[in-house]
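User: Thanks for the earlier help. One more: Cytidylate kinase. Can you show the sequence and predicted structure together?

Assistant: Of course, both are below.
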Amino acid sequence: MTTFTSNTNDNNSDISSLRYPVICIDGPSGAGKGTVTWRLAQTLGYQLLDSGALYRIVGLKAFEAGLLNVDGEQSIDETALLALTQSLQIVFEPNIDSGRVDIIVNGAKIGEQVRNETVGGYASRVAVYPKVRQALLKLQQDMASQSGLVADGRDMGTVVFPDADVKVYLTASAKARAERRVAQLLQAGQAADFEAILATIKARDDRDENRATAPSKPAEDALVLDSSNLDADAVYELVKKHCQDQGICFNR
Ligand SMILES: Nc1ncnc2c1ncn2[C@@H]1O[C@H](COP(=O)(O)OP(=O)(O)OP(=O)(O)O)[C@@H](O)[C@H]1O
Ligand SMILES: Nc1ccn([C@@H]2O[C@H](COP(=O)(O)O)[C@@H](O)[C@H]2O)c(=O)n1
């Protein structure tokens, strides 16, 4: 990767102000962030940050460590949660077959279980804790230090990469997102209850959008895109056009 973008338009700026391009794709669960993020990263040859996976890992490990009660909403021991978060060495490896990253934690590959809705719920419960978010911040920011980056999450454009070159907030109605989840589960040969999935999506949205720290919301300078009535190709083309308008070069 040889493309640099500058933080400033000042021609006299020195090399320390140069950095790689960052594209942020934020939005709620099931909006299609992962799909467009993967395609952008593949097309541009950029790294991919699946920040939701970080919170999913912390949530899963916290559950396994007995820090989460299964049903309730009681608070979690934040000191223990921080220690657990700091003990995790997390690496992403792109997996062409799945169109997602594989997640390696402390040297061991994590199974697909981490992607399920139960673990999504664990993730959103640990994600409210500022110390957890702080502990994951540098790891995320460091991913932009060696190549361009496409970052998928909730607070990429607002907190993690406030100076990003491109910010998109990709959303869709809860109904459309629940329908996509149902289709995804059925395609994988799993059972799917639309009403239960819709309720879970709404509960997760509520927690993510109303937490005190880094709530899920569009950055002030984000393009807000509603994908409820757009297929994945149409979303990609609109996001690509926006990236080009912001100076990202698609020459591959
Ligand atoms: N525009 C679209 N129209 C219809 N289905 C879509 C669209 N974009 C993605 N999908 C499908 O919807 C499902 C969810 O997409 P995806 O995983 O990209 O969402 P997400 O926003 O990353 O969700 P999460 O945050 O929970 O990981 C997938 O099955 C994907 O193939
Ligand atoms: N930047 C982020 C990304 C995710 N979260 C939390 O993790 C949950 C799982 O995210 P997915 O994108 O994998 O569905 C999500 O519901 C958030 O609670 C976050 O806080 N910040």
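User: Great, one quick takeaway?

Assistant: The chain is about 45% helix and 15% strand.
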